[in-house]
Amino acid sequence: MVGAVQGFDFRVLGGLLLVAALVAIASQRLRLPYSAGLVVAGLAVAWVAPGATPPLTPGLIYFVFLPPLVFEAAIQIPWRPLRRELPLLAVLVTLGVALAALVVAAGMHWLVGWSWLGAGLFGVLIAATDPVSVIAAFKQLHVRPRLHLLVEAESLLNDGVAAVGFAILAGIAGGGAASAGAVAGKLVITVLGGCACGAAVAVPLILLAGRTEDRLVEVTLTQVIAYGAFLIAEHLHCSGVLATLTAGLIVGNWGFLGSISDGGRQGVLNHWEFVAFLINSVIFLLIGGQAVRMPMAAVLTAAAIAVALSLAGRAATVYPVTLAFARSRLRVPWGYKHVLFWGGLRGALALALALALPPLPERGEIVTVAFAVVAFSILVQGLTMPWLIGRLGLRQGASTVSTGTGAVSG
Q: What average pLDDT does this structure show over 335-361?
């Protein structure tokens, strides 16, 4: 944990939070995505005062920022609707992530000339999506509950799968066994071990929370659960993302059904909403500041190809997979498909994985291109998401969803 925050100057944290608050106020008045405003603000701060924004490090993002972001999203996902959508989500985050990674990896290998291993690692890390901008637009525009659930749950599960895939490829790059049996064994241990760690941490601490009605103690225990599940899983070489996701689902469903008091429940939700706001504010500001330091001009062609491939990979994930469920009760309206496609923004996890790449000939280029793809998704896709939602008629109360080829009931 100490190493994770090295290089982060906490003396400037107050200034960053002031900038974040001002951007939030301006974004609300202008009805623009908050995350895009923060990235622009980070760029401006870095240009006006070079070196003022601390550098992003993989440890800072992965071990400090990521656990609470995953946990905050997970505690708000209701189990029953999630269970109903699980067959669709399972295919989206397994076959879908594999298709997206394959499209990007093949394209970067053949079109840019990266090695298969480097292209594969980039394909997996860029498949990890971040719905922060999209969910913020959903809350502002009051979209339909099923669409909200699909986007947020798919992104959370997608992140877990992408992180596991990256860890396996990084292990191979470091000289680990690459046979099918070894990879399959590592996959099972990483996934099941991560889920088991999340449950092993969350269940006893939720039972402990049931012995008090002090909301401050209950909030503290959820903080321990979020970081404890993540860190124990990573220490055991399992998936920290899946551990924290599992722990968050347990707290948000079983924990809120009785173990956490009624007053504590709202306190927990308010606390984690603030934590997510705080961390996202810092992350997006630092993304803007870091982008200024990147040699973007040297990788413009590769970055443009990567953006196009990431969109093609996302399309290969969303449209064929959802089409396979067209005759089932999990049929996805075309408007929802378009939002799932265009709302597949990249964010914190993709950058954390990029910064954690093992030594590769093209490592520096991969990191810079990853920042370019993240910046494009936040500034272009994020800014146009409210327009797309309105154009498709996906707000609650709208009776149809415009598809460009007709209308589908929501």
A: 90
